[in-house]
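Aldo/keto reductase (Sporolactobacillus kofuensis), 282 aa
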Amino acid sequence: MDFVTLNNDVKMPILGYGVYQIADQEECESCVLDAINVGYRSIDTAQAYGNEEAVGRAIKKSGVPRDELFITTKVWISNAGYEKAKASIEESLRKLQLDYLDLLLIHQPFNDYYGTYRAMEEFYKAGKIRAIGVSNFYPDRYIDLVQFSEVVPAVNQVETHVFNQQVQAQNYMKKYNTQIESWGPFAEGRNDLFTNPTLKEIGEHHNKSIAQVALRFLIQRGVVVIPKSTHKNRMEENFDVFDFELSAEEMKKISRLDTGKSAFFSHYDPETVEFLTGLGKK
C-alpha cells in the first residue's frame, strides 16, 4: 500500500474503501469485513449514508488494531453549525464505536459550514480527530474557507475520474497544501467508462482491467481513491493496482479523456443546490 502524507504529517492510504449507497446494515458490515480481509485499511463513510453503525461493528469484528485503520466520516448539511456539528460528531463516534476519527470532512458546502468547521477545529485540537477537511468544495468556496480558517483543510474530497480530472482544482489544493481525494473514481460507469477503448487498450498492454487502469491513473496523479464494490472479487481487483505503472505517454492519452465537466451534478446549478439543501432540511 502507498500512502500520502497530509499537511499535518498524518499518513493516509492512497487507496481506501467507500461505503456510499450500501444502506443495508448487514450488507455494509459484511462488505467492510471483506474489504479489511482483502487488505484495505482506509474506510470512508458519512452521516448521510446511514451506515456508520455497520462500519463500527465491522471494525470491532475485524480484529485489526485500531492504529492500523484510517476511518473517515462526514458531517451532513442538516448537522451544520457549531453546536449541531459538535453533537453530530459525538454521535458519529458513538455509532462507529471509536475514541477518535482519522479524518472528518464537511460533506457539502451548504448551511453554516463555517460553524461546522469551528467545531471540527476544536475536536482536532483536542485530539479526537487526527485530520479535518472538506468534501465537494469547488475552488471558490475552498479558497474562501482556507483564507478564513485557523486549520487548513487536510483533504478535499471531490468528484474525480478520467472524465472529470479536476486539474485546476488540484492545482489550487496543492497551492494551499490540501490533499485531493476522489469520490466516484469510476464515474459510476457513466460515459461508458468500462468499455472505453483508450482504457481498454492500455489495460491489455499491462494485463489489467479498465477499472485498474482508471484507478492507477488517479493514483499516479497523487489522488487518493476510495472505490466501492459489494463484490469481494472486485474489491481484490481494485486493490491490485500497485504492481504496474502507466508510462508518460499512457498518462497523456488518458488525460485527453478529460471533459472538465461533472458526470453527476454542479453546485453552480441552482436546481442542484435546491435539491441538496432540501435534503439537508430533512
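Residues 26 and 54 are 7 Å apart (CA to CA). The chain has one domain: 3-279. ok done for today
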